[in-house]
Structure formats: structure tokens, C-alpha cells
Amino acid sequence: MLELGAHVSVAGGVDQALTRAAAFEMTACQIFTKNANQWSAKPLDPATVERFHEQRVATRIDHLVAHDSYLINMASSDDAMREKSRLAFRDELDRCERLRVPYLVAHPGAHMGSGEESGIRCVAEGINQIHAERPHGATMVLLETTAGQGTSLGRTFEELAAIIDLVADKARVGVCFDTCHVFAAGYELRDAESYAATMRAFDEIIGLGRLRAFHLNDSKKGLGSRVDRHAHIGEGELGTEAFRFILSDPRFDGLPGLLETPKGDDGEEDRRNLATLRGLVAKSPALVVTA
Ligand SMILES: [Zn+2]
Ligand SMILES: [Zn+2]
């Protein structure tokens, strides 16, 4: 069984995210360590970092993931954009290190017309340079599977494998599997046979050992649409079965499974989606031992 949680707001400070996650009985959560729509951010203040560590112990939420800013594009063929992105990404990794967040999920980026090969090379070079500058970094970069909108990289398992192939220190890179994105990219997950085939392909091309986190989102758009629109669990084109397969797949026991589904300020939709997910793996009557 996955450790279930959601992307949670850090309004009021990163430590507040853990308080919010605990209120919904999450055992995992994803945060932004800075405003995701801005390039720069004030350094994390030591008191906030301290409170974050204390809250982590108090809430026992130990499956933490950060997501990088939407502005970052290390795949860009524009030198200035790529360097700006690389420095911003390095700062995000530094923030994760201070917060002891083990995973930073990143969209691989968009090649903007320069071609997949060029984009793949740029991303790997950026990661390699950061790794060289931060030889003791403990936070792992998780490249996220994408729906493949526009020139976005990460639509195919092969593209992610190609990036990882060029990363020198492979122990510091993994993959985040977004159910909505993978489905919109054209991988079927809705029946047992197709689910098994998609996971087999992932294993052969990337390796299941590199899969470190799931984003659990239903999809408003259909198989192969290449459009990234998240829906509530069971209310989109994906339906509930795909989630049941993932949640009950013992190969993924203990990995964080995070909702990124639409919600209002009170986050009540998370409660409903988490209940739906938990309900999918509730013991079936046939398995209950009776006298
Ligand atoms: Zn995602
Ligand atoms: Zn998405």
C-alpha cells in the first residue's frame, strides 16, 4: 500500500503544510518550498526550518516530496533561460536539503522547438553540473512523467530513460509517475492486463527501482489526448480501477502517493479523494477470516 497524501499549501510557512496534512490523516505530502510562479524567493528562515523539523516529528508525516517551480526549464535551447533555470533548480534542491525533503519532483522541461535530443541533453547536463557543484546533496531529483503537451519532454518512458542515461550519478535521480499524465500520454491503465503491460514497459525501459513516487490524479481528457487536466479520483476518464491496481501492487508498498486534484481553500476535496482511494483497498469480505 502506498503512503497516501496530497499536494498541500504552504501558506503561512512550510511548517503549516504538515499541520494541514495531519488534519487529513495523510502519511505523505508534497509541498512547494517557495512560490511556484516566481523565480526568486527569500531564503528559508532558520526558525521556520526548525518548526518544520519539529512538526515532522510531531505529525509523523515522514514521506515528504517537494515540487519545483513551473517556470524552470532546463531543456531550453536558450542559454540564458537554461542557466536561469539551472540556478533556480539548484536553489530548490538547496531548500530541500535544509528541510531534509528527500525528493524534488521536476518536470523535465520543454525543448521549445530545438528537438527532443537537444532537450534531453540539456536537462542531463544541467543536473550533472548541479550534482558536481553539490557533491554531498542528499535530495533525489524525480523526473515526472508528462502528458506531452507542446514540446514537453517526458511523455514517453524512453525520453525519461534517455535523460537518466546521460546523468552521471544515477543514484541521485529517479522518476515520479503521474497517473493522469501517463494515461494522457497514451499508456492504458484501466484494466488488469493493460496495467501490467504499462508497468512492464516502465520496468524494461526505465526500471521500477527508479520509481519513487506517484501522483494520483484522474484525467479529464482521454487516453493519448496529450492534455494535462486533473480530475477527482473516479470522476475522470481513468476511473477507479487503475488506482486500485497501483494501491494494491506490492512492488510499490511504502512509496508516497500524492493527490494533485482540484480543491478549494479548506481542502475538503482531499478528504473525499483520500477516502475514495482508501476504500479501493479496503479488505474485501472474501478475505476476512471468520470462525
Ligand atoms: Zn503531477
Ligand atoms: Zn498535471
For the secondary structure, the number of strands is 10
Listing every helix as H and every strand as E from the N terminus to the C terminus, the arrangement reads EHEHEHEHEHEHHEEEHEH
Strand order of the largest sheet: 1-2-3-4-5-6-7-10
Please report the distance between the alpha carbons of the first and last residues: 27 Å
Overall mean pLDDT stands at 95
Shape: globular
- Kindly estimate the percentage of residues that lie in beta strands according to DSSP: 5-15%
C-alpha Rg (nearest Å): 19 Å
Q: Estimate nothing, just give the exact number of structural domains.
A: 1
- CATH structural class: Alpha Beta
**Count of helix runs:** 9
The secondary structure category is alpha/beta
CATH superfamily: Divalent-metal-dependent TIM barrel enzymes
Helix percent reads 25-40%
CATH architecture: Alpha-Beta Barrel
Bound molecules: zinc ion
Structural description of this entry:
The protein is α/β, with parallel strands linked by helices and 291 residues long. It has one domain (3-287): Divalent-metal-dependent TIM barrel enzymes (TIM Barrel). It has helices at 14-23, 46-59, 79-99, 116-133, 157-166, 179-184, 192-205, 241-247, 268-280; strands at residues 3-7, 28-31, 63-67, 103-106, 140-144, 173-178, 211-216, 218-219, 230-231, 256-259. An eight-stranded parallel barrel has the order 1-2-3-4-5-6-7-10. Strands 8-9 form a two-stranded antiparallel sheet. Helix 4 packs across helix 5. The protein is globular, with a radius of gyration of 19 Å. Mean pLDDT is 95; it is low at 284-291. It binds zinc ion (2 copies). The site of one zinc ion (ZN) has 5 residues, from helix 6.
